[in-house]
Amino acid sequence: MRVLPPDSEAVLMERAAAIAGKTLQQIATLRQTVLPEQLTRAKGHIGELLEDYLGASAGSLPEPDFRHIGVELKTLPIGKNGKPKESTFVCTVSLLPGDSSHWEDSLVRRKLSRVLWVPVEADTTIPLAQRRIGNAILWSPNLSQEKILRQDWDELMNMVMMGQLDQITARYGKYLQIRPKAQNARSLRSGINADGDIVKTLPRGFYLRTVFTRMILEKSRF
């Protein structure tokens, strides 16, 4: 049975609090679904499971997951050291001119203006079904964080629009980075090169560095 979208942040937080400390298997049982034995071929399964339980409604639309209240859901895999284990996907990068060219209108900003972070155990020595959900964090960037996110976005999108995709490496961006999102030719998208010509290239995604998500996690503990 489909869970209705939450009509307020309070309702969303009540739902998130109800699964804190539960295992992924317990949540899967509640939603009458089957967990994969491992995530190598089902990387997005945990996020989809939590979206289903919490009542996310955006699906693949370019909007926050909880459209009615403007909140995005992000799972935060936590390693055995208690720190975020990997960078966090935000959204796909628009590779062609004509899409949003201003930070204020960007999908990155809409996605990150209000986020429900849900920590999930990601210690590979723990079987997937036994991994637990942590206490959710409802978060918005402060002025300092948004300033740096904007600077990163401006720099990266300027390179994209100048046809410099191939020059974008992991060293660009303090908090926000661009990385290829697929590794096979069947996933090619249209972009532009330095001459302004339309070319085929791998899709790119915006990702938050672990240094940023670790800061969010650590501040929530005090």
Q: What CATH architecture label applies?
A: 3-Layer(aba) Sandwich
Mean pLDDT: 90
Elements, N to C (H/E): HHHEEHEEHEEEEH
Distance between the termini: 37 Å
Low-confidence stretches: none
- Our Rg estimate from Cα atoms comes to 18 Å
CATH class, anyone? Alpha Beta
Summarize the structure.
This protein has 222 residues and is an alpha+beta fold. The protein has helices at residues 9-19, 24-30, 45-54, 107-112, 143-161, 210-220, and strands at 72-78, 88-92, 115-121, 137-139, 176-180, 189-192, 198-201, 204-208. The protein has a single domain (9-220), classed as DNA mismatch repair MutH/Restriction endonuclease, type II (ECO RV Endonuclease, Chain A), CATH 3.40.600.10.
Describe this structure in words.
The protein has 222 residues and is of the alpha+beta class. The protein has a single domain, classed as ECO RV Endonuclease, Chain A. Helices cover 29% and strands 18% of the residues. The chain has six helices and eight strands. The strands form three sheets. The protein has a three-stranded mixed beta sheet, with helices on both faces. Strand 6 and strand 7 form a beta hairpin. Helix 2 packs across helix 3. The longest helix has 19 residues. The N and C termini lie far apart (37 Å). The mean pLDDT is 90.
Please name the defining characteristics of this protein.
alpha+beta; ECO RV Endonuclease, Chain A; three-stranded mixed sheet; 6 helices; 29% helix
